[in-house]
Amino acid sequence: MNSFYYNLPKIELHAHLSGSISSAFLKRESITNRDVQNINSSFDFETWNGDMNRCFDAFRTIHKLIETPEILERATTSVIEEFHQENVILLELRTTLRPIPTHRSYLNAVIKGMQNAPSVLDNKIYVTLILSIDRSKSLDEALLTLELAKEYYSNGLVSGIDLSGNPLVGNLCDFVPVLNTARSYGLKTTVHIAETADQSEDWCKFLRLHLPDRLGHGIFLTNSDENSVLAREIVLKSQIPLDG
What we know:
Elements: H1 2-7, E1 10-16, H2 17-20, H3 23-28, H4 33-42, H5 52-65, H6 69-85, E2 88-96, H7 103-115, H8 118-121, E3 126-134, H9 139-154, E4 160-164, H10 176-184, E5 188-193, H11 200-209, E6 214-217, H12 226-238, E7 242-243
Helix pairs in contact: 4-5, 6-7, 11-12
Protein name: Adenosine deaminase domain-containing protein
Keywords: Hydrolase, Metal-binding, Nucleotide metabolism, Zinc
Family: Belongs to the metallo-dependent hydrolases superfamily. Adenosine and AMP deaminases family.
């Protein structure tokens, strides 16, 4: 049965680049075993107690290790090839731009890694790119990402904007103008929502201001309280797909 599922052609629509970089790649890059062990322990979900900060600490550790455009390019190619090995035929990568050494050079490195991946060149996998806005960062950072997304969308290299990041930090509604502007540029939008409990009022406010083309997670769109029910009704009525 496992081989049956392994051999099925697959579509992956929620692949965060940093979260998809394997310890095998880091070892090939001669990154120290200690650093790799720290990442592995952070992602040991058998002992995970639901602490969201633990996940984002692991992402920050990976960010420190991927410190040059060259490593980032190779990491991107490696991620694509590993998905190809699992028979993924359509891969949607998403990544938050970082200054390595500039946001543009980061984006160029990711695109180069995508375009030079052997499975892409052989037309065995189709890869698209979404640029993520981190809700814990400033609006200025979000606007910088948006302008690069607009530029690279016109070249057919970027397909949309993602709003994500630590759900315990920041407010979704603060980024509504950015998302609405993205849509005016022709970009699709996807937003992480309802990842933690006790924020249902914010979800309702956000969904009344911006209806994304897709939502991520939506774990707590339940019957737990009135606002959760209202938010879920908006999603169902608007027929917004969920992933992740």
